[in-house]
Amino acid sequence: MVFSEINLLSRPQVRIDEYDYSKPIQGQQKKPFEQHWRKHTLSYVDTQTGKVSLEYRPVIDRTLNESDCATVPPAIRSY
Question: Is pTM beyond 0.70 here?
Answer without folding.
Answer: no
